[in-house]
Structures are given as C-alpha cells and as structure tokens.
Amino acid sequence: MDKNTITGFLLIALVLIGFSWWSRPSEAQLAEIARQDSIARVEQAKMQAELDKKKIENERARIEAVDSSSAFFAARQGKAETIVLQNKHLAVGISTQGGVVESATLKGYKNQQDQNVVLLSKEDSRFFYALAGKSENLLSDEIYFRPTEQTDSTLALTTPLGSGSLRLKYRLQPDSYMLDFVIESEGIANLFAPSMNSIDLSWSNRAQQQEKGGSFENRYAALTYKIKDKGTDKLSEMKEVTKDIEKTLDWIDFKDQFFSCIIIAHQDFKNASLTSKPLEKNSGYIKQYDAKMQTLFDPTGKQPTEMQFYLGPNDFHVLKATNALSLSDKDPELQKLVYFGWPIVKWINRFFILYLFDWLTGFGLNMGIVLLLLTLIVKALVYPATKKSYLASARMKVLKPEMDKLNAKYPKQEDAMKKQQEMMQLYSQYGVSPMGGCLPMLIQMPIWIALLNFIPNAIELRGQSFLWASDLSAYDDVIRWNKDLWLIGDHISIFCLLFSLTNIVNTWMSMRQQQANAMMSSEQQQQMKMMQWMMIIMPVAFFFMFNDYSSGLSYYYFLSGLTTILIMWALRRFTDEKKLRQQLEDYKVRHANDPKKMGGLAARLEAMQKLAEEQKKMRK
Questions:
Q1: CA separation for the pair 208, 469 (Å, rounded)
Q2: Is 332 domain-assigned?
C-alpha cells in the first residue's frame, strides 16, 4: 500500500467522522426521542394489558359456555371478595375466590417503615388446592364461595358441587396467632373416584424484608419443616434449592428471622416438594418460598380435612403455649422452630440461658442492661475456670528459667524428643500441668457458642434501643453513607468496631502470655510470629464479618471481651509470682521422695523416646 492510498483512507475516515459529528441530534432532539420512546412503551404496555384482559374474558366465557353442564358450573359463578377475620394480635384476609387465606398482618409488631408487619399479602402470596374428579379437576382459583356464617373471628364458606357442596370453616382463636382451617364435603362422593383420598396443596410466598439491611435477617430466614415423630430440618438459607421430601411431615414453615407462617396438617403432609430462593438485596424481599404437598381428603364427608395456620412471632414461649391449641391430639412442638444450636449448646440455651434471660427481663430493665447483667453473671460463673487457666499459665511463666536451661542443654533438632521428655519431668516435679490452661477454656467454649445462637433468635431484642443503637436486633449505623463499599457495605457498626478492638487487645495480651511461657527454638519462634500475625488478622476480619450482624450480639461480645481484659488485668495485678514460685518449690520438696508418676502426654513422649533410641541402635 503506497503513501497516496494511505492518505486517501485517512481523508475518507476524517470525512465520515466529521459528517457523523455534524449530523448527530442535539440534546433537545435526544430528549424528544427518549420521550417518544417512553410514550411508545406505555402505549405498548396498555395494548398488552387490554389483550391480556380480553384473553381472560374470552377464556372465562369459553369455560362458562363449555362447562354449563359441568357439576362444577355453579361453583364457578361468583366474584372475588375479601373477608377479614381479626383478634387483638392478628388480621387475616380470606378471599371468596377459592376460599383461601390471601393476607396476614400482625398488630403488635412494626417493620422498618413503622407499619404493621405483613406476613402474607395478596400481591406476594398464593394458596391453591386441587381435587382430582372423575371427569374434570376442581381447581380452587376457578371456584367461588358464599359466606354462610360470619363473626369477627369465624367464617364459614360454602359452594355447590353437583347435588352436594364443599364447605370451608375458619376460626381465628382468641388471644392467639392460630387460625383453624377445616374442609368438609357433603354429597359429592359420586364426583370422585372411590380410591381418591387426598387433596393437592400449593402454597407460595415472597417474604417481605422486615428488618434493617436484610443481610442478617436473610441468614436466619429458612424454609423449615418438621418430620413426623422427629425433629425439624430446613433448606439452605444462602442458595436456591428444591427438595423432594419422602418422609411424612407435621408442618411446613415459611420462616423469617423473627416471624413464621406455618401450615400444620393434622392428617400429615405427604409427597412434599419444597423450594427456597434468596432474593436480591434491597429488593424489599428476602426469600421466595414454594411448597407443594398432599394431605387427606374424604369425598364421602365422614372425615373432615383439618389444618391450622400459625401466623406470628418466633417467640419460644408463645410457640410452646400455642401447642395447646392443636385441633387434634397431635403435639405440633412448634417451639422446636427456635434454633438453640447443637445438642450440648441447645441444652445450655434451653435450660440455663433462656431461664436466666427471662428472669432478667422480668425486672423491666432496658435490654442493653439485661445483656450487661447476663454477661456479668456468665463471667462470674466461669470465673473459677478462668482463674485456674490463668494460674496454670502463670506457673509455666515462673518455670521459664528452668525451661531456658533445657533449651540451652538441647540446642539440636535431633534432641527435641529428649528435651520434651525432660520438660515433662520438670512439670511433674513442680506439679504443673501443661494442659491446665487449656481445659478450663474448653469448658467455657459451649457457653460462648450458646449465646452466639441465642442472641440472634431473641425476639425480645427486636426494636429495643440502647445508647446509639436504635434496634439491638439489627446493626447500629450512626456512621453510614449512600454507597456500598467492598467488604464493609454502607455503614460502620460502632458496637462491632468496639468488639473488634477488644478482641485485638485480648489477642495481644494472650500473645504476650504465650511469649512469656514459651520454650522454643529459633525455627519455632519464626512459626510463632506467623501465628501471631494470623491471630491479629482474625479480629480485623471479624469486623468485616460482623458489621452487618445484630448490634446486640456485637454489644455482648464487646462486653465479654472487655470483662475478660479487666479480669486478666486484675489477676495479673494481684498474682504474686514470687509467692507462686515459692509454692512450686515447696511442692517439689514435699514430693521429692514420692515423685508424681508421669501420665498422658508425658508417658507417651517417654515411650516414643525409648522407641526412637531402640530404632537408632538397630540402624547402627
């Protein structure tokens, strides 16, 4: 390609670019184009809505024309209305189309917009049932009911089917969150096959976000179910999952962090298929729940289908009291819905922490003070173990000069076994246990884990303010901004920051104690430095992990860490190391003629040393 050709291509390109720039529309023209596009989209949406409306009307006309001789024809005539049942706790909307629950609102709890908590809404939830007939299926959304009996808290609905009828009964039990639901039939057995004995149910709900942020709430919102004669299980909280349940179920719960929508079958649920799907953050919703299942239906009318809805808070005491409202002899054991942790941890929460928490809240104190007192009581109970752990470390510290001598005596790596063995003999002479500082800490661990499970599930903290935190069940966000930042989000939780700082101080104190007691080679010292860096990094990582967590939980951890610092400072301040050293020397003198027999780790090390020496001799 010669110079003239290249020049020509460049000129053509410049002309095209210049023409495109000169002919581009102005800002006003662009705005007009956008306006016209918007108008076109609106018109298109209107046309589509009209088409959908005509399609529905045509489909309904077709059904009426085709099914005029159907046994279900009369049931398909009517209009949808909503009838509200209510007591002092709950308002439930029931539609005459299908006779199903379409809404549920709690009266005593507020959401973040300071409005009553909505558990079910007409826009986000759907309850559907189907009966398989001989010639056609009866679908709940195609039939209409007429109210025959109605009070503020009870409702009876009836629809004709052939020469008989289908009747639904609702009763909102007084001073409770329990709604009874009974299906009865009369004179319709001829419409169904003799072997037909079940009703297909489908229930779905797009669970609304009730708590601040939603992230922490999402971790505790899960589709939960109870297996008959056994405990509860749940689908994953963090990913979309569908699970077919082969076992028989007592109930299915669309669970939020603090509230539940439970459907209970007194004739059991079978062939259940359950789906849970987390929804996008800031969408106003946390989960999409779907459940399909079957329960008993008797077309002869001899046995009614009995179900109940629990639409209320995840309060352990309320759930346990609600068990007595069961329509049958079956105990639904709804209190198992409140998760207290794995067996040992669960027992601590169930039979100690719960009663202690209830006792403290019974004084009418602010929940921040309750958590403070709870922390102090727990710390007082584990103080003997904490003191024992510290004294074990202190004894190791005063023996460090002897340990340093052993380190100098056996500088080589191949003598590590001998050094370890003599060190164990040294511990035995002075009555010191190297595990003395670990075992008491292990005893405290279940209590720490128990409170980690208890506090996020304590509905008593919901909406309770303390200091700068407006809600102890959600994060405190005095420091916030309008844009999500990587790892940290759109706020800084001050209680979480305090918890992390106390954790760093505790870690630093622990490392100093380890350094004072350590008898290590240069290589081990390098490894210890790496471990120390990791121990420092962990509290920093906790800040990013817990920034979205409950401020009540971070507050408890802060108090726990702060009291630990104060206790360790006091123990260090009032422990006389010279006196402690003298006690060890006295022990050594007293037991000089009856040395303590080595056991456990020391005995194993001695055996390993002897084996290593024998193998070395054999190799030579």
A1: 23
A2: yes
Q: Which two structure tokens, joined as six digits, stand for 184?
A: 């009865």
> Can you tell me the distance from the alpha carbon of 124 to that of 205, in angstroms, rounded to the nearest whole number?
6
Question: Are residues 235 and 355 located together in one domain of the fold?
Answer: no
Q: For the chain, how far is it from start to end, CA to CA, in angstroms?
A: 84
Residue 509: how many other CB atoms lie within 10 Å: 15
Q: 212 is in which domain, residue-wise?
A: 74-339
Q: Which of 274, 282, 268, 271 is nearest to 254 (CA)?
A: 274
DSSP letter at 193 equals -
Distance CA 586, CA 129 (A): 82
Residue 7 domain flag: no
Q: Does pTM surpass 0.70?
A: yes
% of the chain surpassing 70 pLDDT: 77
Q: 436 and 306: one domain?
A: no
Cα 24 from Cα 30, distance rounded (Å): 9
Each residue of 382-439: pLDDT tens digit? 888 888 877 877 777 777 777 777 777 776 666 666 767 777 777 777 777 666 556 5
Report DSSP letters for 358-379, one per residue: HHHHTTT--HHHHHHHHHHHHH
- Adjacent-strand bridge partners of 366: none
CA proximity to 291, closest of 202, 198, 181, 223: 202
- SS3 state of residue 32: helix
DSSP 141: G
Of 206, 202, 201, 203, which is closest to residue 277 (Cα–Cα)?
A: 206
Clarify whether residues 379 and 278 are in a common domain: no
State whether residue 451 is helix, strand or coil.
helix
Render pLDDT for 545-556 as a digit per residue (tens, 0 to 9).
888 888 998 999
Torsion of CA 556, 559, 560, 566, to 10 degrees: 180
Which DSSP category does 598 fall into?
P
465 domain residue, yes or no: yes
Residue 294: strand pairing partners: 200, 270
Cα separation, 319 vs 310, in Å, equals 9
Same structural domain for residues 322 and 356?
A: no
291 with 430, same domain: the answer is no
Residues 309, 101 contacting (CB under 8 angstroms): yes
Q: Which residues pair with 15 in a beta bridge?
A: none
Give the model's pLDDT for residue 29: 54
Res 144 pLDDT > 70: yes
Residue 46's pLDDT is 60
- Report yes or no on 3 lying in a domain: no
The tens digit of pLDDT for each residue in 32-81 reads 555 555 555 546 656 665 665 565 555 555 455 445 667 788 889 989 99
* pLDDT confidence of residue 540: 81
Tokens 């079958």 correspond to what residue? 265
Assess whether 300 and 360 both reside in one domain.
no
The encoded tokens of residue 611 equal 């084996």
C-beta separation of 293 from 273 below 8 A: yes
For position 620, what pLDDT does the model report? Answer: 57
Q: Do you know the residue count of the chain?
A: 620
Count CB atoms within 10 A of the CB of residue 532.
17
Is residue 353 located within the same domain as residue 320? no
Q: How far is 104 from 117, CA to CA, in rounded Å?
A: 9
Between 600 and 493, where is the model more confident? 493
Structural domains in the chain (count): 2
Do residue 473 and residue 583 come from a single domain?
A: yes
